[in-house]
Structure formats: structure tokens, C-alpha cells
Design goal:
about 220 residues; Four Helix Bundle (Hemerythrin (Met), subunit A); elongated
Length: about 220
Amino acid sequence: MDVKTGLFYLFAAVLLFAAFRVITARNPVYAALYLVLAFFQASAIWLLLRAEFLAISLVLVYVGAVMVLFLFVVMMLDINVDALREGFWKHFPLAAGVGALIALEMAAVLMGGFRLAEPKTAMASGPGTSNTLELGKLLYTEYLYPLEIAAVILLVAIVAAIALTLRTRKDSKYVNPSDQVRVKARDRVRIVQMPVTRAAQPAAAETPAAGETKA
């Protein structure tokens, strides 16, 4: 076994362990951190396969952006984990059925083998060849229409998210940003003339009660 095969088994073992801990960790923050570890191991495996562009994209997009957002949301929200686990056994049969179905589909695909058709555009290979350049050529020639369809779907999702966020709510206080930009100092601070304070008047001497003599 050479060094490359040993590194592959090492990264694969750590990846399987991290993926298992993602679904078994009790703390959601630990689960998100284990998912980050799984992403790093997957990117290392892609580096062994000489897919540098995919490895760097996985680290930058998922680890650098998506997982940071997940950690921010999980740590800022007060999530009651015990309340989420109350319905575990209630939904377990449905989850087990879906998991078994996915496992059977993956087994059918793996046992049947991968019968991939040869691309129409041949990719060049060699020591001085950039796989990122060749991947871009193949992506924008052979798979141009699927790429455009995926871009349209993502655009619709972005527009829908913005529309749901900017809808007017009756229970929220809204301030027009243009009014905040055009505000002046005199609109925020108002000087009010107050009368000069006067010294307090001395208290009147108390009159002695009936039957009492003043010393």
C-alpha cells in the first residue's frame, strides 16, 4: 500500500467518524463542528483525486460561508433540544422507512456499476494541463443547459427569500432608511429653555401642640 492509498483510508475513516458524530452528537454546536470536519476530509479526498477546484470550492463555500452561518444561528438561538427529542420515537418509523429506501436505491446504483457515457468534448490530460480550465470548458459546453436551469432555480429561491423577508408585518416597527439618512441634528436634539432654579424657602417653624411648652 502506497502513501496515497494510506492517506485515502485515513481521510475516509475520519470522514465516516465525523459523519456519524453529526447525527449522534447531543449538542447542536458539536454536530455542526463535526460537519465542518467532514467537509475538510471530503476536500482532502478530492485533493487526492486531483480535483483541486472542487476541494477549494467545498472549503470556501460550505466551511467558510454556510457552516459559519449555521453556527451563528445555532449559537444565537436558544434551542430547546429536549423539546425536539420528545417526538423522536413518534416519527422514527417514517424516518427509518425513508432511510431504508435511500439505502436500497444507493445499493442498486452501486451494485449495478457506474455506466457513464463518454462526454462529447474530450478533456485534455497531462502534466501541464489545468483541470479547472478543462472542467470549465466541459461545464459550459456539454452541460450548459443544466447549469442554466440550476442558475434559474437558485435565482427564484433568492427572490422568494427576499420577498418573504421584506413583506410588511403589522407587529414590527418599520423606519424608512431614506428618512434616517436625511435626518439633521436639529431634528434629533431640541433645546428647551427652562427657568432658573430658585433657592428653597426655609420651612416654617412648627407651632407647639396644646399642653406642650417650648424649651
